[in-house]
Every structure is written in structure tokens, then in C-alpha cells.
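@channel sequence for tomorrow's demo:
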Amino acid sequence: MWVRLTCRVILFCLFVLHGNAIFAQSNSASDTVALKLDTAIARTLAGNPRLIAYGYQIDAQRGRRQQAELKPNLLLGIEVENALGTGDYQGIDSAETTLSLAWALERGKRERRMDAASAGVHLLEAEAEIHRLDAAAETARVYLDTLAFQERLIQTDEAVRLAEQIATAVQKQVKAGRTPAADLARAEAELASMRLDREDIEHELRTSHRRLAAQWGEVEPDFTRVIGDLDKLPTPDSYATLLARLEQNPDLSRYLSEKRLREAELRLAEAQAKPDWQVFAGVRRLERTDDEAFLAGITIPLTTRNRNQGRISEARARLAMTDADRAATRTQIETQLFSLYQELQHSLHRTTTLREEILPRFEQALKDTEHAYAAGRYGYFELRVVQAEILGARTALVESSVAAHRQVIEIERLTGTTIVSAVSYP
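C-alpha cells (generated this afternoon):
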């Protein structure tokens, strides 16, 4: 069952995973080990320590269900009367010995216990599905973070390359006497700052590898990069379509299992209001006449006060609370879905605008400014401004793409279904 829920998150692969990694470092293919998202999720589901621990909770509940199926044990009774007394009842010659078996008539309690225990198993299994989906979604988030750091590292490498070009251009201008030496010092300082930024991102990337490996219980990652393409943006279905799928949210589905449990608990509490009857049968030995006789009987408790009223009231309140909690959760999820969908639309629009309108113009402006600087028409200030603008636009493009993919993960987790149109991603 967990495969069905997990595959909804794995659809993230359709637009994040496409063939080769975008992470282009100097290491050769033989020196790196690539990791795919579906592999990461599969390893998480197989080895996540919290999921393993939750499996033991389900086993424990199944043990309670097994115990609930057992019937009460028979009671063996041995009773001796009219013995060791006085007069005619001295010794055991007048004794009456009764050997009997008694058993309880639970009057439906066993069936109600079994129903409650089975409903408890179903509830834990529903919660296990939620935990598995949460673990898969968290793995997708960490995977996306790792992919983002890889892309940031690429952008920082480009920033370093650009800073080196500018420093070289400024050095030529200084040697030609066209610009003051202070501009070269500033350019070299900018280059050193870019290199420091790259080092920071390298540390963040290594930490992200550790966090990803920890998802399946390992402390040393056995991979050096992850595979994905942040440029592949999703084409989500309409908000109305997603809203219609909201009933498949695993948190809402869990309430159905919880409601069955509360109903079973109410029926059990009502059954426990009926006292157990006890039936017995046996044989009596009469020593005086050397005879034997069969006897049977039934014991019926008189419940004039305790009819389990308090537990019945508690069970009814818990049942009503389940419906109220589900309604509140539905409102919260629907509000969150609307917010995420709006954010996704904004991220997609922002990414498209940056990629198609803003960044190309900044790149053209940088080329024109470099030519003008080399010809002496512009100073270092103009060159530095355009450099900062293009680096800012590239950074904004990466961050908006990451935001869009992250919002897809969250919407899929909310709806319990895939949100990407099958037409756009065959």
C-alpha cells in the first residue's frame, strides 16, 4: 500500500530527474557516484529508523488484537461441604464434594473487543502510510536542497569566472593608465569574496549530502552528487482539480480509520455495561448415601449502579470529537492548498520572466558594458553594477526554480496525488 502513496511524491522525478546531472564539476564520471531521487526515496522507505520503529508499534497492536480474540478460561471448582464438623458431621463420612466447571458468558464483549483491536490496527496502518509519505516528502525536500546547492555552486563558479574576467580587464586598463589602481584592488577584492562564497556553498553541499543519507539511517553518504534539472518546471493542474482531490489527503483519510475505532470503542463500552453471566455445571458426591448427582447453575450480577455510564459518555464524546477534528483539519488543509497554489503560480511566473526577459537583457548589457569599458567609455563602477545585476538575476532564477519545485512537493503531500498534468509530462 505504501508504494501507491509514495509514488505520488516520486512524480517529482518527472520534472527534477532527466538523464544526466546538471552538476558540472571537474571530477570525471569515474570519480563520482550519482544518486537519483527514486533511489533515495526507496532507500528511505527501507531504512528510515523512525519508519522501522513505527512498524513495531503496528506489531504491538496486532498482538493486542490477537489477545482480544481469546475467550475467557474455564474455571475449575472443587467444593467440600459438611466435613470435619461435630456430631454426625465429624470426619468426612457425611461430606458432600462438588467438582464443577464454570465459564463466563461475555454477551458480545469478545466481538466488540476484537472490533476495537482491529480498528486500532487499521488506524496505525493509516498513520504508518502518513509517516511513510512524510518520510518520502522529506527526502524529496532534502534532495531538492542538495540539487539547489549544486546549482548554486555552478552559479558561483560562473560568478568567479566573471570576476576573474573583470579583474583581468581592469588590470589591462590600469597598465594602460586608463583607470586608477584602486579599481584593480576593488576588482581583486570582489574576486576573493566570490571565492569565499564558493567555499561556503561547498560546505553547505557536503552537509546536505549528510542530511540526505541520514534519511535512510546512514551517517556517511555513498554518493557525491544528485541527478536533476531545476530548469524543468511543472505544469500543474487547475486549483479546482486539486481541490476535488483533497479528499485523498492521507491525513483526512486517517480520520476515517479513527472514526471506525471510536465507533468500535463505543460499542465495546456499551457491551461492557452488560455484566458477564457465569454458567457452571458439575458433579456432587454425597458420602453418606454413597450417591452422586449432577448440578448446574447460572450467576447473574445485579447491576443496580455501575452500568458503565461514564465510559459510554467518554466514547461518544471521542467519536464526536473525531468529526470535529476532521472538519477543522479539512479547513486548514484547504487554506494551505490555496496558499501553496498561489505561491506556485507566482514562482512559475517569476522564473519564466527571469529566464526569458530579465536575464537575457542583463547578459546583453554586460557584453555591451565590457566593450564600452575596454574602449574607455565606461568606468569600473558601471562594469561592477552590471556584474552585480546579472549575478543577482542568476541567483534569483535558481531560487525561484527551487521554490516552484518545493511548492510542488508540498501540494502533492497535501492532496495525496500527483499535480503535474499528464499531457505536459508524458
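heads up for whoever presents: The chain has a mean pLDDT of 84.
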